[in-house]
Each structure stands twice: as C-alpha cells, then as structure tokens.
Write a structure and sequence with these properties.
The complex is a heterotrimer of chains A (748), B (317) and C (180). Helix content of chain A is 29%, strand content 15%. By secondary structure, chain A is an alpha/beta fold. The longest helix of chain A is centred in the N-terminal third of the chain and has 19 residues, at 120-138. Chain B is an all-alpha fold and 317 residues long. Chain B has one domain (28-311): Up-down Bundle (Formate dehydrogenase/DMSO reductase fold). Chain C is of the alpha+beta class. In chain C, strand 4 and strand 5 (85-87) form a beta hairpin. Chain C has one domain (5-179): Alpha-Beta Plaits (2-Layer Sandwich). Chain C has helices at residues 19-28, 66-69, 97-101, 122-125, 132-136, 153-160, and strands at residues 5-10, 38-44, 51-57, 76-78, 85-87, 108-109, 115-116, 142-146, 163-164, 176-179. Chain C is 20% helix and 23% strand. The chains are: A alpha/beta (748), B mainly alpha (317), C alpha+beta (180). At the A-C interface, strand 3, helix 7, helix 8 and helix 22 of A face helix 1, strand 3, strand 4 and helix 4 of C. Strand 1 (5-12) of chain B pairs antiparallel with strand 2 of chain C, so a sheet runs across the interface.
Amino acid sequence: MLRREFIVLASATLASLSMGLTGCGKQNVAASYPVLPTDVCTKSPTFCEMCFWKCSGWVHSKNGKPWKVTGNEQDQHCLGRLCTRGSGGLGAYEDNDRLKTPMIRITNSDGSQGFREASWDEALNYIAEKLATVKGEYGAESLALFSHGYGATHWKTFTKAFGSQNITAPSYAQCRGPRTEAFKATFGQGVGSPECTDMENSQCIVLIGSHIGENLHNTQVQELGTALKNGCELIVVDPRQSVAATKAEHWLPIKPSTDIALLLSWIHVLLEENIFNQDFVTEHCTGLEELKKECASYTPEWAYPITSIQPDVIRKTARTMAKNAPATLVHPGRHVTWYGDDTQRSRCIAILNALLGSWGSKGGLYLPQKAKVPKYPLPAFSKPKWTWKDLENNKYQLASAAVASQVRDVTADPSLDPEHPIKAWFVYGSNLMMSLPEQKKTIQAIQNLDLLVAVDIMPAEICGWADVILPECTYLERYDDIRVSPGRKRQIAVRAPAFEPRFDSKPSSWIVKQLAQKCGLDAWFPWANQEEYLSKRLEPLGISLKELEAAGVMEVGQQQPLYFADGAPPTFKTASGKVELVSSLFSHAGFDAVPRYTRHPEPPQGYARLLMGRSPMHTFSRTTNNPHLCQLKDENELWMHPDLAMLWGVTHGQRIALENQDGEQSRYRIPVKVTQRIRPDCVYMVHGFGHSEKKMTRAFGKGIAENELMTTIHIDPIMGGTGRRGNFVVPSALTRTEAAHQQEVGHA
Amino acid sequence: MNEDVRYEIITGKMNPHIDPVLDIWQWQVPVYLFIGGLCAGILILAAWAVLSKAKSQTAQRLSLAVLPLLGIGMGALFLDLENKWNVFQFFGRFVPSAPMSWGSWLLLLLSPIIAAFVLATATEAWPNHWEKIQQRSILLTRIKTLCEPFRQHLSVIILIGGISLAVYTGVLLSAYVARPFWNNSSLAILFLLSGLGAAAGLLQLCAPAGTERHRFGRVGLYVLIAEVSVLALFLINLADGTQAQDGAWAVITGGPLTISFWIFYLGLGVITPLTLELIALKKKVPYAIAPVLEIGGSMLFRFVIVAAGQLTTWQLY
Amino acid sequence: MRKRYGMVIDTRVCISCGNCVMGCKAENVVPEGLHRVWVVEEESGVFPHARLESRSERCNHCEDPPCVSSCPTGASFIFEGSNITLVNPDECTGCKSCVASCPYDARYIEPGGYIGKCTFCVHKLGSGEQPSCASVCPTDCIQFGDFNDPNSQVSRSVRTERTKVLHEAAGTNPNIYYIY
C-alpha cells in the first residue's frame, strides 16, 4: 500500500483551506479538484426554470466561466437542494442547438418554404404589421397567447394591452385543471403550486397514480423522503409499480380507468365503519347524509370486480387512512387528465381528504401563505368584446382558466364558433406539438392562422410551424418577474442574469417592450428596463433589488398559522361557506354532486392501454436535448409485463414501433423494458422523447412521443380537460423499414 | 430460492471502455504478453543449453533476437498507454505491490544481462561470424572478453530471469481479484508453460534437421503435456469457483469466447500439436506443423485470456 | 486521527432520480459521456409482489484499495490522513491497471489520458461541506461522514440499521454501506 507524504504548500490560502485535508500532497491533485484556491468563484441568484417548481438557487461561476447551479438554503421550494434538472440547468445555457437569431418564414423561388435569419427590428416589425392587419380584420380578440414558464409575464401584459384576454396554457386542461376545479368545489380553493401538501408531517400518504419521485417536484420528493424515514405509511394506487410504490406499505395495482370505483369504496368504508373524522365533518362539512346515501352501495365487494383490488385490501387501507387521520394525505396529484371524468375523480380525492379532516391539519393539507407584492401600476386594459369564456357558448362553464385545446379547436375549425375567430397565436415556451393532444388538429389550426409567433430557447417542433421565431435567452441570462408563490412561508425570490445572453437571444422583458413600442402600446411598458420594473415592484415592500439579489430569497409579511388547530380561521369560499361533500356548484351546473363511477372503454384483444408518466431527469419535452441531462437519460423505454411481451413476441431491449387503435403509428422506435412492475393490460412510457426536429441534435429521433399515439381524447365536460389514457397500442406492423429509420435517425 | 433478479443501470455509468464490459486492453497487451512469454522461453532454453550437456547452437543464436523482440513487445505496450508522455513514470519508483512495476523493473534490469549473456556465448553461437565482427568493433570485443568469464553465472541469472519474466506475464493478470477469470493462481504457470512451448516451437522450426530439432520437438511435447495438466486445474478451479467466477466459467462455456477457447486454442493450439508430436514419436510427420500450431496457440491463448478477463466483473448489471 | 470517510446510503428512500450523478458531474465538471456516480436498480419478485432496490453507486474508497496497490507508478494514491483514493494525472501513464483492479468498475479514462474517479469531493471536505452527490440528493438518502468517529451519523447508522456492502468477497473493505 502506498501512502503519500504530506507536504503543506507555502500558500497560506491553501493551508487555511486544508484543515488537514484539502491541502496538496507531494503530488499534483489539481486535476482531482474542480476548483483551486487560486480560482475566483462568484455566484448570482436565480430561480430555476428547468421546471415549474421555481426553486431558488445560486449560479456559480469560476474565473468568470459558468460552473454550476446549486440550491438556496433559505428557499422553501428547494431547502438548499435542486433536483436533477436543476443541477443540469447549465446545459440549457451551453446547448449549441439553441435558437440563435430571429427568423422569418419565407417562400423560396421553387415554392418551397424556409426560414431566413432576420434582425430583431425586422422580425418585430413583421409581427407588428401582421398584428395590425389581424386586428383590423378580426378584432384584437383574435390574438391568443399560449404560454408556459415564468418569462411569460410581459407577454401576458402585451396580450391584454393589445385587447385580448385569450391567454391560455396547456398546464390547465392538459394537466392539473380537474384537480383545481374539484378542490375549489369542495374546499373553495385549489391546492396551488407548489401544492399545500404537508407531507413532511404525514403519517399516511395515499398516492392515486401520482408517481412522486419520478415526477421530481422538488420539495414534495424531499418531504416524501422525510415521511418515509419517519415511518409514514404509504399507499400507492397505480397500475404500474412506480418508484414510490416500491417504497409503499400497500401497492394497489389497480385496473386502469377504475380509480373512481376504488375511491368511492374507500368513502363507503369510512362512512360505513364510522371511522371518518367526525369532529372535522361535523364542524366544517355539509352533505354528509346525502353522501352516505349515495355511497351506501359502493362496498369493497362491489369495487373488487371493477378494480381488481381485493375487498380486504380496500378495507385495510381505508382503516389505515382513518387511523392516521388527520395526518393522512390523499394526494391531489398534478397531471390528472386521464379518462375524461377526472374532475369527479379529483372530487373523490377531495371528499376523502374532507372525511379524514386533512384540510388545514398537520400532516394533511396546510393553509398556504403567499407574499403580497403589489403589481406594477399600469393603465387599465381595455375591455375586450369577448374572451375565451365565450368560446362555443361557454362550453366549459366551470373552467376557471382558458382551455388550451379548445382555443386550438376553434382555430382549427372556425365553424365551431364563427363569432369568435382566432387568427394569431403567440406561443411562449410551450411546445404545442408535444403538449397538446391530437397533433393533426394543432397542425390544422396553424394552417388557419394569419400569424404564428414562437418565442422559445430551443428549436422545438412548434418553431418549425411558426411565421416568426424569436430566440429568448435562458433563465441564466435574464431578469424575470419576482417569484411570488404559495408555501408555508411568505417568500419572494429573484432571478438575475448570471451571464450575458449567448448568440442574438434576448430576454422577453426586452423583446416585449420593443414589440409594444412598434404596436403603440408603450403605455403598458413604462419602465426603462427589467431592473427598474423590479425595483418599482419591490419599493412598497421596502426592499431594494440589490438586497434581494444578495439573499436570493426573502420573507415578506407576517407569518400566519398553517393549521386550524393553530388558530387559522376556517373559511371556505364555497357557496355554502362549508366544505361541500356534495357539491352545489356541480349540481347547479348539471353535473353529479357526488361522483359516480362510469365504465371506460377497454383495450381491444391484443392491445394494451398506453400509460404515460415523467422521468426525473427531464421536464416535458423541454430538456431532452440538454447536453447534460441527455447524458443521464437519452431515450424513453416501453414498460411491459412478461406476459404481454410473450403475447407480442418481443424481448427485453428490443426496439419496436407502436400503432394505436386508430391506426396511428409512432414515428420512431422505443426499446422494450420487460418488468414485473406493471400490469399485463397496459404499457407505460415517459413523456418528452421522440423529437422529430433535426436541429435538436441530441434528442432527434430518440424514443417515442406518446402524444403521436394518443389520438382518442376523452374530454372532461366539467372543465374541458383532455383525457388521453383511453388509447391502446400494439407493435406496429412497420411500414417504415429499419434501413429507412437508420438513414433518417443516423443511430441505432 | 431461485428467483430472477434483474440489475439495471438507470443512469450514469456507461463510461466508454468500462461499460457494459471492460474493453481497456485490445491487441497491444496480448501481443506484449505473448512476446514476453516467448522471449522468456527462449532465454530459459538458451540458458539451459549453456548450463546442461544438451548444447544448442540454435537456442543461443535465437537469444540474440530476444532484445529486439522485447523492444517490439514493449512498443506494443507503449501503444496501449493512454498517457504516453508519462511512460518514464514506470521507472519513477518501484511499487512492490504492483506486478506491472515488477515487470517494468525486471525488463529494465534484465536487458543488460541479456546483452551480456548474448556476448558471453557469442563464440559458440556464431563461430564463423564472430571473426569479422571482432575486426570491426574493438569495444564489443572488450565487453565480450569482460563477460566471458561469467558465462555460467550469467546463464543462471538468465534462467531465473526468464522464469520470472514468464511467470510475471501471468501474475500480471492473475493478481486482479476484480476479474474473476484472471484471478486464478494456475494462470502464472500456464503462462510460463505456454511461453516455453512457443519458444520450443520456434526453436524446432529454426533448428537444423537432426538431433536439435528432434530435441525441441520433445521439449514441446513435454511442455504441452504439462500445459494440458495445468489447464485442467485452471478449468476445475474456474468451474468450481465462487459466485463471481460463475460468470467467468460462462465466458468459455456458451459465452462469446467458447469457440476461440475450446476449438482454436485448446483443439488447434494444444491438442493437435500434442497429438502430432506423439505420432512423431513413432511415425514420420511433416515437422513444421506442430510447432507452428503451438506458437499460434500460445499467441491465441493470450488473446483469449486477456479478452475473457475483461468480460468478467463482480458487478451484476 | 486518520479519517475513514464513507457513506451510508438508504436504498429505502432512494428514488433513482439521478441527481447524485448530475450533481457530481456539475460540481466536478466531469467530461461529456463520463460518470463517476451511477444508479442501479435491482428488481426482483413477481407481479404484484415485485421488489425494487435503488442504489446510488460510486468508488467505495476501500480500506484495501487494489487500484492503489496495482498502480505501477504511484499515480493512484491514498490521500494523506484518510482513505480517499485519488489519481495524480502527472504520474498516471494510462496503463489502466487500476481500472482492471476495481471490482466496482468505478474508474474511467479521462480525455487527458489519465484515470478519473470519484474523489468524495475532497475539495469540499475541508470547509465541512458534503460531497456533491450527498448535498444534492432530494431525499437525503446519502449520508457522508467519518467511520472512525463513533459519534458520526454514518457510524450510528451502521450500528443501528440493517446494512450491507457490495461485493464484500472481493476483499477490498469498501466504505460505502447500503441500508436495505
């Protein structure tokens, strides 16, 4: 064995750093060190834009060069720890596949179309002119904004100033909308984002298809870890054994699409055995008797043949929930648009939480706090003649936000609503080709547009359809609005640029202001720059931008109690002012006041239901080309049970293409993962892969985009949610040969 | 309990040349090991020829080729280094726990002794040529005169050095506990015998017809018999090994090296020359076939062993 | 006193998110395509009783490191006063002997021709910080500390929890324990 002689170098800095360890031995260990005492390290505050959790962190530079991003210890969104995507955030900045300059669509002499590089002035003039034409012809309301991400603030302001309220995002009707409406109908408010789940104190957590851990919602994952270490009992309902399910006391591999039956049966057991939280229900809830009546027949024996979950398991798990109540959390989930009756399923979850008394209780759902930061004083927006609410005669009357898929649909088929034409789209940071279901309809809608502007960092598929592409710089290169989000504390956070924007990319704050000038909307953008805007917003709080930048995160305002037990006022903004076990809102609107189970279509012979989820290394389809994160995971795989693999004649690792019940084929192939961790009647893949845009060199052609195979959509009549889990697949007969595939993709 | 357990790397790893199986040593290392073994064999036989009554001019002549051959072998090893500028570091210190360090120093120290040995035995080896060389290089003659009195001592050192060199080429691999296929003590003896066999084969090819050629044919036969015996021990050890060695056994029983090992190495490189040499005891067979196969087998053996070891790991994914 | 740095990794709360891998790569600027840390899933059992063990793996900074003893030049060495095995690029010839000697296959070839590996973020330890993989883990399943200090968290965990090491029979005396 070899021991190196320890020689302390003369450098005092090194010696002080060393503490007997970090010093240099005789050998040069410099290459083992990413940072040396002679390096000048600096950091600047940001909050992460790799997903929607918006964790505050520090961007570290070494000798003026980008180094790493780490979490801010003071931040309640991350508690000092970023997630995988956040740690790989630098990749967004470093990616050389980024959009580099503004581009305008042109028609070549041979009739083919292409893009030409343009100056910012040209591109924005082009947009301003087109907008003026559209406004003149169809009214300002015909502009719609699809957005995702924190840089959207100014785009929203622009849209409103222009005269349109048609601001939408796939994060509502394609994701968490049903949950919002269900909790609002029950408790008078939604669970927000980050969700007000008090998991760190939970003694029992119930996950309905939510795969926390694989969806790396930072603090939720951290709190799940804490809960598990504290011996929290975990009950996971999922056709697939998610990572969370592998940690669970009870994994209930439910037959897909039957969750409502199980939830109703749980409600039944709680009521039947009288083990619900009597105090909470008596004090805060209405509709108990009607609920009892409605649920009387939902015995575990009734649910068993529907769900395939044994009656004794249903009873046992219900008792576990009751035993730990009110520190039992039936998690509301996040991506909940599955089968078209999702609002009612979320209602079941809300009712269960009410019966357990979890709302406002430690270990259940805490009462979220939010900092009060006054808006920048701006002139009032003119009132538009119509808004998204009026589309198709207020079709989704309980939708509290614009339904992105509906805006798309009326664009695609103007005959649905001839009175309310939509002729121009601004698409900010949302790859609609991947995030909206029924891609063909999206393409049809785009054909009907007079103007499509895509603002993005990456050449996402949507950019290929745009008339004008505007390259935004990444979150590491810009200021954005102040982060004000709900949580246990009233915190605000700031994002400041760590680096100069690469290429000719610009922050939205700059882009929008330029565009507004060209459109004569200067009045709504009176600030000189984003720093001035931020300073003005912070002024009433008595905080300077500099102070906030030094801390990254600050607490603003008086802390209020999080639980009823600690004196929080029990106010519920429902019609009755109580927790509504039976929803008056739903019954007035003509929907079931108490959820009912309905049967959903089942896979035809030989087909398997296609389920989708998240990878912890990626956010949607936005990060699959990230040079760091693609090293961690560069392809999705298709999970299937060995029995199904045998039926389909495929083996572990084999790459197959898929075809759905409508004959739609996947563009690419996906490797099979044969596993005991899934039911034989379904297959599973994570979202975000199967990019068809060649300019994304790392992500192109890798894996399958499940969206291509989800062509049958079950729409939630309550709020317009697009349920995509009623699609069934088989291995594709393969019209494309392997050689052709190889040629296009260029890799195995 | 015979339960299926599946190991999967979820993320990370897949480092080039490390995963999914080790692929750090390609042709360079087996070539080096082969040449090292061959040279060791030549030295052993040449030293033996000096020390024993069984004189062999061919063996002593071939010892002249040892240094250039070793140069080629070390050249191959040099080509394998990822950080070639640091090659002199091998002689920066002696690390007793590292076989590779032993090898480097052994070769360094052995080289002048080999030169001295060649000079000390030059008169018998090259009786006709030496006259001419003598006239041209006074320096060489002086060194030769200096070495000649130590002819016997040098031969003993060369004999020991040769054995050490051959054994070292095996120990180099067998010391790796991390590679179950290599981690087998009989490997060192196998490498010694295989090197000796290759040298005997080469001498048989180079020797003039008659006693000498016949004698090296005999040596080859004995070495092959010994090799088969030790190989049996090696295989028993492998088949009967720990859980980690199960994988090693599988590499040559159904695994990617099955045919190379059993058919080409054992069948063509060992059993066939062995049979031919046995037949040659009674009948006349073309003399060149057996030694050529023997040398080929010896070379292939290094390739198979180096490849097989890299296919084996303790990791289960 | 000599430090015996090691980890106790709780597979019961590891969620295979890969942040240990990413955090390490970011902190240590590990070149593209190379990794010092990796995550393994061990799946067993039959539906619906399948089981999963998620494990974050890396160099075990063994007590008897074969990578150090097999290095012919001394480039592979043990950091003074500890058990942390490092590589000195100035002495490394890239002979890959250490790579072959590691039963955990934890070493790799750097583009510079020398051998790369986990350093336990030795540059952070002096200021009392944790290695990057541990400090970013969202479920805090990676505990890092000194096994020679009986009061350290890692020492206590090994005393109180059911733990194992990987490939014990390889005889290297690894310093990473897994709670399972």
